Records
---
Amino acid sequence: MFCWKCSYQAKITLEPPKMCFMIDKAVEPVQKVGLWLSSRPNNLRLREAGVEIIALIIAREPENSVLLVQSPYHKTWVRPQESVHLYENSEDALHMCTQVERGVELPPYSVELEKAFYLCSIQYLGTLDRTHERWGERRVVDDAAGTSLELIKLSRKAYYKATPLFADSYNLNPKADGKEFLNFQEFRFEDAKYAILNANHRSKAKLLVQALMECKRDIAGVPKLSA
């Protein structure tokens, strides 16, 4: 026998979970967008900062040294640097910066090669304004088409520091391509500091010297790797 009272109670009991499910489905994309925009790199991009990773590549033998490359522009000695694309993580950008752009072969993952290569850290350094005449000349990130960042123009750059550590200079084996860089050389920390000071304007030089000092701290507690 059909009971209107039971039917009404069942309706009250079943509809709220269904309503909650519908609300959850509607809110889910908003939450995903919120999480995406709340990531630090995208938060920086929302503030018109392009994200760059600087690779301070360290060799431990025969002594602690930093790899710098010679730029075709004014033939100054600079540190490898690369933009972080929207759908890249820091490790992807580091790979691009070292292997593709600078000719340093990062070893593939394996137990044996882990002994010769170690990524000490990837750390945020700070943000610097671009010169005013270069504000807005391009998007804050090149592959932003179709995203919330598409209309945001570049006016500053945010820098991350990566410290890849190699057992010795033999493991680096960089190859100059004559376009991205002309030559390469390993510098002792103090010599690298002076090279950086000579090749950069004051605010960026200060940031890079800070990165160099942090590299020294990064490797202080790391035992020497087996070549």
---
Amino acid sequence: MRSYNGFTATERMTAYRWLMAEYAAGRRMRPVACDACTQTAGLIEPHSEDYSSPFGPHIGQWGVCYTCHMMIHCRFKALDRWDEYRSAVRAGAIFAPIAKRAFPVFAGRFLRGPLPMPERYRESVPETLLDLIEHGELRPTDHVLEADMIETLPALSLWQPWASLIAIGAKPFETRGRCPPRRLIGRRIAIHAAGRKPRLADLDGETFEAMCEAFGYRRWLEALPRGAVVCTAILVEGLPVERVPHDLFGDFSPGRWAWRLDDVRAVEPPVPARGQQVWGWVWHVPEGVMP
């Protein structure tokens, strides 16, 4: 069990044990239906967004089927699939149940390959529990998120020299083909330099000269770290590229999005990490590193 919503693994486990004792004493009833997709078959588990004490009804407040539960906790690792799954549940999809805790079964069905066909449908709804979680509406507002922010950060892997351009403050926008997830707006993210060696052949003369000016010298290529987290930044907002000033350090083609970054903090020295192609993979911040 790891930190979640700013609560440490110890806090979460303490709350979970309290809830199990409540079930055993008959003071609480175990959930029998999923509050997200309405599934009643298979494993239905309690889910909390708030683990604060004193404990009460907010512990295990919602019942969720095993599939919805795992999608909630895997959402930072599989952002596109999370969005696709939420859309399907809003449309009324109810997928075949999973009878017991079996993560390989879940991952094989829902994290690899296309989303499986639903077992049946219910009436569509404009919003579900999954969307409320996505938008942060159930996250406790009076809880300091220090533990969550220090222990883990959602991360974005970029090829060099783009990652280091962000680290030195020369690249205020990361251009993408989609808008950023709403749940991450205003949050700190990690910028990871991928392991691929930069290729000068990919740069035109004007861009290369702009990079020399940004880095302050012409032999910058040899000094760029790779396979490491180089900085963190606040993801302020996402804007259509037509609404922001263009520079030489992004793809500002029509229809794309500019993710505005602010309060950039260089990680010195860069922390080695193995990145992932999936946006939003979780970087576990090493002890002693202040992101």
---
Amino acid sequence: MELRQRHSITRSGFTLTEVLIVIGILAVIVGVSVSGLMTSRERAAQSKDALLMQSAVTQAQQRAQTAREGRGWGVECQSNHVQLFSFNSTTVDYREQTDFRSGVACSTTGSQVRFTKLSGQPVAETVFTLAAHGKLYRKISITQPGLIQSEAL
């Protein structure tokens, strides 16, 4: 009779295999969600950098159109920052500098874009590109009629 009582006791709980399967599923879910969060954060940071660049170009164009200080205005892109400057036939005065976040580099087809006084027309068409950790992600074009366009790469 004692043998029957020992075997009739049922055990409740999970086996080691079941626990390991649940832990594995949770690890996959956490990995996918963290990866998605990092990707969306990077895209948001890239959008912010592009907005900074586009804003600097727009400011230079607007200052040239209003002939602020009686001069033309422009933007120069140098590796990790962008600078607004004013110019006349003999001098260039660098004014405001905006830094990009770490790891972002700016390059251009020319060294800078200049907007003529009053018309706000660019002297030449220019394309700025932004790259994060060596990978291009945004192109900002300034065309001859003065149109500023931003395009994801």
---
Amino acid sequence: MTARTRSIRPLPVLSAGAGPPLVLLGGFALAPTAYRPTVEALSRSWSVTVPDLFPLRPLREAWSAERICARLRAALDARRLDGITLVSHSFGTALALQVVARDPGRFEALVVASSSGLSERLGMLSSASVGFRVLGAASPGAVWAFARNALAQPISLLRAGSWAFFRDADETLRRVAASGVPVHVLWAADDSFVRRVDGERFAAKMGASFHVASDPSRARPVDHGWVYRHPALFERTLAAALAASAPDRLPSSTKSGARPVPAASLGAAGRNGSC
């Protein structure tokens, strides 16, 4: 832990597994518990950490990206995480880009799921709508996680959405693209929230690989919430993207079919977690 982060309260996390570190930054207004099935699936190969980007806070402490990023760094320091594969879903990409731009040496790769980087206002407008349309496309766990946050801290959600919409991301994108950290963009084949063309443009701007996740055998479409709705598909797509660029960095258990950590034995969950 650095001297600077020693006095900063780390974000609470959901964690499980043993192996190379993977940190997942989730979607707008979603608590880590919304991603529990995904954490369980990934835990067969990775040491997974999902920070709570919307922790409950006193009314006098407003949500701010700067504070959340500082608390995220404190959480990574507290858990002594380096050589991290950083995965972001939707809104979480805005914060992921910030932390990679600030400290690229800490990360092995950045994997962006269903996000255009939130760098264009039109794309952001579509992505921000995810939070308000989540009832029609999310898993029951995600619905509950969103509803709890919306009821408990609506002002914080407004501040977070406003920051993501109005921030100037161009310099951050340039710094990440020039950092040498490999970037991969994963896309849901049937994403109804963010246009695929926006994802492809983002990947081209970042010099990133672009991978489309689809599963013809499924009766339901692979939509924006696929990261937590279809954890096995997400795990396979993530492994394929990483293997295409750096197969030596893949955990050996990814190929050996190791069993996931049972949900009951997962570590600190949601706001009850600690770093």
